[in-house]
Each structure stands twice: as structure tokens, then as C-alpha cells.
Amino acid sequence: MKIRESHSQKSNFKVYIYENKKEEYFVISIPDLFWSIKVDYDLYGESLIEHLYLHLFNVLDEDESEELANRISQWTSEL
Predict the structure, then answer these.
(1) Which residues on adjacent β-strands are paired with residue 25?
(2) Beta pairing, strands 2-7 & 12-20
(3) Helix (H) or strand (E) holding 44
(4) CA proximity to 28, closest of 12, 42, 14
(5) What does DSSP assign to residue 10?
């Protein structure tokens, strides 16, 4: 499991990323928001960003959702 910190003007979050290589998925969790999601490897790039954005938009405003979705996408591509 990797732990990353996301800092923005409005908030700071710890983002937990678990990768299951055998079953090809990530579990991404932000405990401060009571938010988590399972994402399969077949989602990547722009489709991953859009998917994350739509789910984050339920708990964050538009700008923060977009910024955090981009960061999470970058972090998962590094693993």
C-alpha cells in the first residue's frame, strides 16, 4: 500500500492506494472524506480521470475533484 498526500489551497488529504497485481485492480481510499473506490486496470488515462472525477464530485467541489482525480491517476500510473 502506498500513502500519498494531496495538498491544495482548500484542503489536505492522505490518499491510500492499494494495488492487487494478481487480480489487476487498485483500491483507493481517502479516510478524511469517508471515500473509497475499486478501479480495475482496464481504466487508465483520460477514462480513469473521468471515472475518479465523477465519484469525487459527490464529496468535493468541481475544481478539487478534477485536481485530485489527476493526481490519483498520476500516482497509480507510477505504481
Answers:
(1) 20, 40
(2) antiparallel
(3) none
(4) 14
(5) S
Distance CA 41, CA 32 (A): 25
| pLDDT per residue of the chain (79 residues) written in tens, 0 to 9 | 999 999 988 889 999 999 999 999 999 999 999 999 999 999 999 999 999 999 999 999 999 999 999 999 999 998 8
pTM: 0.92
d(CA 65, CA 34): 15
C-alpha cell at 21: 497485481
Q: In what order do the strands lie in the sheet containing 12-20? A: 2-7, 12-20, 25-30, 35-40
